[in-house]
C-alpha cells in the first residue's frame, strides 16, 4: 500500500531539501526523494551544490588561496617559509570531508524536522484520487501518494556538441574538482562562474591555464566597469583569457587535448592542453520524471513550465530551482523552495528576482545585485553613480588586499538604489547589505547615513553611497 504524504519533494538539492524542511515546519507530512550517492552507495543529499558545485569548489578555492598566499604573500607579513609543498591528495581529501559533512548535515535536518527520506529516483506514475502517485526506484521500490508534489531535480552541465564528458580529459565541473594531479596545461571553455573559479583553483596550484570564451565581451552579465577590472586582474594573476572565439572540432589522445579555434580577429589558432574543462552552461534535469505520462508541460528549452508562483500546468504540482526559468543559483532555488512550501500551507511565499545577488568566488571576489550601468542606459533610465576603491579603505590595506571597488547606482530623482556592483575582498559578504537595502526599496542616502563599524570593508559600501551625492569622506 502506498505511503501517504501531504508533500513529496523530488530532489534534495538546495531547492528540494529546503522546501521539504519548510513544509515540515509548517505542520505538513513530508517526504523527500533523492538518488545522489557516495562512492560506497550511501545517500548524499545536497544535489550539485553540495556534491560537485558550490561547496566543494569553495573548499578548493580556500585551499588553493592558502597555497597562493604561502608562496607569494607571506613574506609581506614577515613570515618566512623556506619551502612550500603541495599534497594534492590531502587537499582533495579535505574537500571530500567538507562535502560529507554537508551531506550528513542535511540527513540530520531531515530527521530533526521529521522529513521522511527515500534514497532513489522519484517519478510520476499517474493521477490518484487524493493527489499523485509517485514511484521511488531504489534498492527497494516504494510507492508514495502525494497531495502536493514539488519537483526540484536541478540541472546538469551542458556538453559541447559531439564532445562528451569522460571526466578524464574532457571535464565537467565534477571532474574538474577531482583532477588527480596538477596538469601542466589546462584549458577552460567558458569564462563564466565555473570556468573562472575552477580555472583559478588550478592556476594557483601550478597549472598554466587558458580560458576560451565565445562571447565578444568578458563577463558580459556583469557591470562593464567591474568586468574590465576583473579581466585585468585575473590576466595579471596568470589566466590567459581569450574572448570572441569560435571553437572547432576538439580532438583527444591518451596524452593531450587539442582545441582548434578562430580568435576574435578571425585568425586560426590551436590550443593543446593536458585536460579541458567545459563550462558552457547547464541544462535542466527533467528527463526520467515520467513527465510525459502525466502531461507535465516543459518549455522549448526543456525547463518545466511554471507561473510566477512556481505552479506547473498540473494541479498541486510545483517546480523550483534549476529545473525552471530564472537564474541557476542555489540561493534562488532555496527561496523558491521556501515560497512554495508556504503557498502550499496557505501562506504567501515571496521571491523577488530583482534582488537575487550573483557572486563569483575568484580573488578578488565579484558580486552584484540589481541593474548594471549598461542595462540602465539601454532602458533610458536616469541614474547617479558613486564608487569607492578598496585602495582607500583602511581594513583592505591592513588585509593587504586593496584590489577593486564598490559601485552604487541610484535613481537620479528618488535616490532609490537600482544596483550595487563590487569587485574586491569579501564581496560575497558585502553584497548582502545592498540586497537588504534594495529589498526595502531604500536609497543611497540610507546606506550613507547608516553607521558602519571602523575599520571594516563595509565602509567602502558607505563611501560609495556617499559618492552618489559626491561627498565621500575618505577619497
Automatic annotation (TrEMBL):
Its main location: cytoplasm. Residues 5-337 form the FAD/NAD(P)-binding domain. It is an enzyme of class 1 (oxidoreductase). Residues 356-465 form the Pyridine nucleotide-disulphide oxidoreductase dimerisation domain. Disulfide bonds join 49-54. GO terms for cellular component: cytoplasm. The keyword Electron transport does not apply. The keyword Acyltransferase does not apply. Binds 1 FAD per subunit. The active site is at residue 454. It comes from the Bacteria. Keywords: Cytoplasm, FAD, Flavoprotein, NAD, Nucleotide-binding, Oxidoreductase, Redox-active center. Its EC number is 1.8.1.4. Its cofactor is FAD. It catalyses: N(6)-[(R)-dihydrolipoyl]-L-lysyl-[protein] + NAD(+) = N(6)-[(R)-lipoyl]-L-lysyl-[protein] + NADH + H(+). It is found in: Cytoplasm. Coiled coil: none annotated. GO terms for molecular function: dihydrolipoyl dehydrogenase (NADH) activity; flavin adenine dinucleotide binding. Belongs to the class-I pyridine nucleotide-disulfide oxidoreductase family. The active site is a redox-active disulfide bond. This is Dihydrolipoyl dehydrogenase.
Amino acid at each position: 500500500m502506498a505511503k501517504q504524504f501531504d508533500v513529496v519533494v523530488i530532489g534534495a538539492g538546495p531547492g528540494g531539501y529546503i522546501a521539504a524542511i519548510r513544509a515540515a515546519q509548517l505542520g505538513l507530512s513530508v517526504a523527500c526523494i533523492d538518488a545522489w550517492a557516495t562512492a560506497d552507495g550511501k545517500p548524499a543529499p545536497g544535489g550539485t551544490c553540495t556534491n560537485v558545485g558550490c561547496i566543494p569548489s569553495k573548499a578548493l578555492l580556500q585551499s588553493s588561496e592558502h597555497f597562493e598566499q604561502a608562496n607569494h604573500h607571506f613574506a609581506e607579513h614577515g613570515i618566512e617559509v623556506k619551502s612550500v609543498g603541495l599534497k594534492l591528495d590531502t587537499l582533495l581529501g579535505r574537500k571530500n570531508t567538507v562535502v560529507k559533512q554537508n551531506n550528513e548535515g542535511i540527513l540530520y535536518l531531515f530527521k530533526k524536522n521529521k522529513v521522511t527520506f527515500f534514497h532513489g529516483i522519484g517519478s510520476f506514475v499517474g493521477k490518484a484520487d487524493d493527489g499523485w502517485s509517485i514511484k521511488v526506484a531504489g534498492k527497494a521500490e516504494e510507492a508514495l501518494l502525494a497531495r502536493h508534489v514539488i519537483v526540484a531535480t536541478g540541472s546538469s552541465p551542458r556538453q559541447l556538441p559531439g564532445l562528451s564528458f569522460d571526466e578524464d580529459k574532457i571535464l565537467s565541473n565534477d571532474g574538474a574538482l577531482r583532477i588527480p594531479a596538477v596538469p601542466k596545461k589546462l584549458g577552460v571553455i567558458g569564462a563564466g562562474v565555473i570556468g573562472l573559479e575552477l580555472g583559478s583553483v588550478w592556476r594557483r596550484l601550478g597549472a598554466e591555464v587558458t580560458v576560451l570564451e565565445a562571447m565578444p565581451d568578458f563577463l558580459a552579465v556583469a557591470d562593464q566597469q567591474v568586468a574590465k577590472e576583473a579581466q585585468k586582474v585575473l590576466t595579471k594573476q596568470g589566466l590567459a583569457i581569450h574572448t570572441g572565439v569560435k571553437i572547432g572540432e576538439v580532438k583527444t589522445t591518451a596524452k593531450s587535448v587539442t582545441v582548434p579555434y578562430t580568435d576574435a580577429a578571425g585568425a586560426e589558432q590551436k590550443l593543446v592542453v593536458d585536460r579541458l574543462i567545459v563550462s558552457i552552461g547547464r541544462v535542466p534535469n527533467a528527463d526520467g520524471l515520467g513527465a510525459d505520462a502525466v502531461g507535465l508541460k516543459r518549455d522549448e528549452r526543456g525547463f518545466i513550465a511554471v507561473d510566477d508562483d512556481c505552479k506547473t500546468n498540473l494541479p498541486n504540482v510545483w517546480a523550483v530551482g534549476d529545473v525552471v526559468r530564472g537564474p541557476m543559483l542555489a540561493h534562488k532555488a532555496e527561496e523558491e523552495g521556501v515560497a512554495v512550501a508556504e503557498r502550499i500551507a496557505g501562506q504567501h511565499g515571496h521571491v523577488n528576482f530583482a534582488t537575487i545577488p550573483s557572486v563569483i568566488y575568484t580573488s578578488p571576489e565579484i558580486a552584484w545585485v540589481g541593474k548594471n550601468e549598461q542595462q540602465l542606459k539601454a532602458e533610458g533610465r536616469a541614474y547617479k553613480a558613486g564608487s569607492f576603491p578598496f585602495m582607500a579603505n583602511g581594513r583592505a590595506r591592513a588585509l593587504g588586499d586593496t584590489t577593486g571597488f564598490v559601485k552604487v547606482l541610484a535613481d537620479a530623482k528618488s535616490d532609490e538604489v537600482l544596483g550595487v556592483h563590487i569587485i574586491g575582498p569579501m564581496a560575497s559578504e558585502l553584497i548582502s547589505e545592498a540586497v537588504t537595502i534594495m529589498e526595502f526599496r531604500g536609497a543611497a542616502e540610507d546606506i550613507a547615513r547608516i553607521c558602519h563599524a571602523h575599520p571594516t570593508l563595509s565602509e567602502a559600501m558607505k563611501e560609495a553611497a556617499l559618492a552618489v551625492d559626491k561627498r565621500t569622506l575618505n577619497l
